[in-house]
Amino acid sequence: MAARFLLTLLLAFTACLAPARAADAPLTVFAAASLKESMDEAALVFRRETGQQVRVSYAGSSALARQIERGAPADVFVSADVDWMDVLQSQGLIDAHTRSALLGNTLVLVAPKHSAAHAITLDQSADLLPLLGERGRIALALVDSVPAGRYAKAAFDSLGMWDDLRSRTAEAENVRAALLLVARGETPLGVVYGSDARAEPRVKVLGTFPEPAHPPIVYPVAKVKSSTHPQAAVFVRWLRTPQAMRIFRERGFSVR
């Protein structure tokens, strides 16, 4: 009888502690690779203000969305395009009531910092082949799945360059991997976001693609539907505060 009473008391005590543990657990954010510096800083500021620890996992938006589809324990998702957020929303995997367009960005052509390449106007008269040389390649994120790669392909196609460049690309798993290829001098050119170029001192911007040449670059954010973390929706809302917006602007993003 006493043992049964103690067991009942223990279960009740554990149930009382469960919400506290959930609130104390790290908040897991899945964020596009291009957000690395800004989201790291935002996570630190949020923890300083609220005491809530934030753990951020970075990758290409496509890889993160597929992980969420497979049940990865994410609380918040920040994509680098609306398409992958739409995919998750169509499957009921995000809380649509928390979704909003958070940030914007630019698309730029970069070269290694000490390259002899000069600034170029990216329009239909531009020719990048001389800058690539005989064997050089242009670094892009995966053009069939990763937002930065899809934006780049769309821009080249719009400007009439894709047919000449498609066989001269070096595709990387995400935009930061493409940026690294240029920063290391492994490719003479690359296409990344403006915020990426600002974050990497070993590259220089040769030109900015005209916005009409590619779909609008939009970073949506939403709470993952399956998340039970009490701070998930709070963090999503906090990302739209003036303090958070200042962090993103300073890193080269525009705010929506």
UniProtKB/TrEMBL annotation:
InterPro entries: ModA, ModA/WtpA
Signal peptide limits: 1-22
Family: Belongs to the bacterial solute-binding protein ModA family.
A UniProt-annotated Pfam family: SBP_bac_11
Keywords: Metal-binding, Signal
Name of this protein: Molybdate ABC transporter substrate-binding protein
Tree of life domain: Bacteria
